[in-house]
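User: Fold this one for me? It's Molybdopterin-dependent oxidoreductase.
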Amino acid sequence: MQDQIKTTCPYCGVGCGIIAAPQPDGSTSIKGDPEHPANFGALCSKGSALGETLDLEGRLLAPQINGVASDWDNALNVVADTFNKTIAEHGPDSVAFYVSGQILTEDYYVANKLMKGFIGSANIDTNSRLCMASSVAGHRRAFGSDTVPGIYEDLELADVLVLVGSNLAWCHPVLYQRIVAAKNKRPEMKIVLIDPRRTMTADIADLHLAIAPDADVELFNGLFSHLFQHGAIDHDYINNYTNDFTDALDSARELDSEAVAQRTGLSLSELDVFYSLWAGTEKVVTLFSQGVNQSHSGTDKVNAIINCHLATGRIGKPGAGPFSITGQPNAMGGREVGGLANMLAAHMELENPHHRDVVQRFWGSPKIANKPGLKAVDMFDAVADGRIKAIWIMATNPVATMPDASAVENALKACPFVVVSDIMSHTDTTRHADVKLPSLGWGEKDGTVTNSERRISRQRAFLPAASSAKADWWQMAEVAKRMGFSSGFNFANAAAVFREYAAQTAFENNGTRDLDIGAYANISDKEYSQLSAFQWPQAKGQITEKIDKRFFAEGGFYTSDGKANFVAIHAPKQVAKTAEYPFTLNTGRTRDQWHTMTRTAKSPRLSSHIGEPFVEINGADAAALNIQNADIVRVYNARGSIIVRGLITERVKAGQVFVPMHFTDQISANARVDQLVAPLTDPISGQPALKSSTVMVERF
Ligand code: SF4
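Assistant: Here's what I get for Molybdopterin-dependent oxidoreductase.
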């Protein structure tokens, strides 16, 4: 039998365990790990096809400077020298890192340490900003910390499971299958889907509410008001464990039920069915994803949901609580080590002077960033207007995925110095790199990731490095040393980075911070190599699976007084459609592709599901525009234009269209949908509104 290596899927935030076995013929067999608590052996189509995506075609195999192959020493020196020179001439805020939920926690840790603790700027942000920044901001406002209170088991234990802005069937398929199994076992379990679009997830829903785009605040404020009106409030929980209930309730009651119906596009009877079900059921989980987060009111949506759970004390209990599910494999790990421009390492906060002091003393660093850095959209604006003169992009493709993507492309074209670390040689973004650095891919790299239920799992190497590719953490550490930071970056391996990160979570942490995995600070390289998936919280100083893994059933919030904050939420202004651009553009995933398809497009099996870009359009709209099914159509607005196939469907309502996010100029000319997306962001989280731009559609 070949070696069987336990590792973790590199795709979605479910974080499934995988057993990979390289075969003598060079292929790799992939199966689900039956012992991993996220998936118990199950895998979805993407995970099970991973073995088909491991060839070297298209890989970046050696460093390049201005398109010419180089060696590591030379390339790293150029990066370090250029960053140093830029900082010397223009200050630390003239440089930036833009990283990714695809990199490992160890990579994130070193990048964050270099930028915030040694360069002294907080200009490090991540494509996770596009994924879950609104959840982070909402959790912090309510709980005083970025803590997801529940665990996956709660989704199976709930009597009512509400899925908001989440196509779980396609985007988190193994979790979806766990829910299907739970419902088959307990058919009385009710599932509600809240989504403007009738996605595949509607197939298991008892109730689908086709809400108007971005009307979630109104819907959940209406629920809060209903809970109060119908005596479903838990006064003991509110009195003992929360602040600001009355203000939040007052704002929730600003709209009466007719106004809620009008804003949400739902009938009074649909609202009543949903509200009565929620109010009358103790075990309710409200799971939310990108339809909530990717919005100009994303943080308010998150808090409108959390308000309802706080008001009923339905939080941190088996089968009850708000639940944010992340899109990427390591968005959570990135959050944990402070990979966002407004966070510090180990869930400490950049704006908190005590936290800054703790982090700086732990690192023994010469300086510490003392103000938030630029969030993703602002960061590329700063590249465009010349404030940022050197940027290092790692494991992500912003020219295809940022809002107003063509403006991002122009900004990078004009930027004096662009470094891109990637596994692929030719992406929309590597085209504009002065220096390209080859990174290890999945199966070659080694480290940890954290899934949506706070479970830390190992990604293990089972293949040799592709030619001279190197770990992302190593690249950062080598540049740090060459920039003159002689201490702080002498990590022998990923295990050494993990030990330092684990120690930092426990440093001067006397239960005042949620994240403490200090018990792992002294594990040996061998123990790290054998580390089983584990979940935090961990009992202080002990490695154990025996404590309750939920948070907040009996208060214990991480605010200054230990109480949760209700947040007063007002109905947001909606994005106005015009006669010129009368359609709301929704973007999202398809079942079998991942991000910009660098890996999944290698599998013919995956591409046979949906192989070309399309726009879903309602039958009435198609008829009015004289569009037949499968016609080639143009979707456009003032920012740009894409050419895709029209797909007539009742899944989208009239006045809305849906285009998948995956297709880039490398995959299919003229299908890069994010060039149409307005650079509109949530004012609190900075997360872009990727689902509410306005467009026109016409036959091509
Ligand atoms: Fe991978 Fe997500 Fe599929 Fe699990 S559900 S196999 S983590 S893509």
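One thing worth pointing out: The domain at 133-325 is CATH 3.40.228.10 (Dimethylsulfoxide Reductase; domain 2).
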